[in-house]
Structures are given as C-alpha cells and as structure tokens.
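Forwarding these from the shared drive since the link keeps breaking.
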Amino acid sequence: MSDLPLLVSCERDFLVHLVAIPAEARVGDLIEAAASLVVGVHVPDRPLSTVHIRKIDGDAALPIDATVTDAGIEAMDWVHLFFDAAPEGEPVQ
C-alpha cells in the first residue's frame, strides 16, 4: 500500500502540517509521527497529558489501535491532535 498524505493540526498551534503515513499504520503511529512535528516544538510538551487525534469534523478521538484506513482516514483528510482536558481547577500543564 502507498502512503496517505494527511493534513494535521494541533491544539494551541496555528500551523497545518502535511504528514505522509502508510495506509496500514496504526492511529497510534500517526499520533506519534504528527506529535513529533509539533509537541515540544510549536506547543509545550504536556507530559501528564495523553495526545489524541480526531478527524477535524468529528468530536470523538480515533481508536489508537485501529489502522488508519479502518479508522476512516483517507488521503488528504484533515486530522487534529488534542490533549486530555485539565482536571477541574487545575492549570493546563
């Protein structure tokens, strides 16, 4: 299978990145590849939070163990990285 080009944005970052990922890769692999371009570079690392990903027009996080194609991601889809919400009354890390 060939690589899927995807648009990737991240919470608290204004840039949109182009990331190519193998169609058979897991969603967790996509998160890792995309986060390496943003977390600790454009947005601060939040070591106590987990990074999730969703399609830009969706609300739910994609399952981390699903393959990219099984999660419904197609070439040139826009996906968005986001962090766990801070607990009530706690500052964002």
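-- next protein --
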Amino acid sequence: MKKLNLFVAVVFALFAFVACENDVNTNAETAKAEITETTDRVGSAISRESAELKVELENAKTKVDNKIKELEVKWANATGETKTELDQQLDKLRYRQDKLANDLKHIGDKIEDGWDKFKANAKETLDELDEDLDDINESL
C-alpha cells in the first residue's frame, strides 16, 4: 500500500509539473506573440510616418527649387542693393535646399535609430523653410 501511495504521489507530482511547464510555455509563447505584434505595429507606424514625411520633404524641396529658379531670373536682371539682397536670399534657400536633400537622402537610415529626433529636425527644417519663403515673398 505504501508503494502504491508513493507511486500515486509521484505520478501526481509529475502530472502537476508537466501542467505547470505547459502553462509557462503557453504564457511565454503568448508574451512572445504580443511583443512581435507590438513591434510590427510600431514598425508599421514608423514606416507610415516615414513615407508621409518623405512626401512632405519632397514637396518642400520642389517648392524651394522653384523659388530658387524664380530668384535666379530676378537676380540676372537686378543691380546694386537688389542684387545683393537676392544673393542673400538665394544663399539662404540653397542652404535649406541642401538640408532637405540631406534629409531625403538619409530618411531610410533614421527609421530604426533615432527616428523621433530625425523627424523633429526635419519638421524644424520645414518650418524654417516656410518662414524663409514668407520673408522672401514679403520683401519682393
């Protein structure tokens, strides 16, 4: 009888151990699936933001390119102080043009590392560009 009780106790303990191990495995698998799903959602959101920002940067670059062409035509016919002022405006816009080109070149590099900082800097560049264009339009 003692052997039977011992055998039943061992079987029960083994059953309990296997059941706990299955719960641990199930919980680990569930946690892993949730982490993967969250990572995928974050990656998808960043990819979407990246695509939207890229379009915004490309549109801004087109706007700058067109404004530079317009000012270059005016510069060619300008003289004296007007030409000097146009030189300054063109320099400022060419600087913004270079920043936009650089942002566009590196937008894919920044998705994984430092996305928030890159996005904030790009938005700041866009805001500064809008201010510059407003100033130039007011002065003409």
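Residues 3 and 22 are 28 Å apart (CA to CA). The helical segments are 2-77, 80-106, 115-139.

- D.
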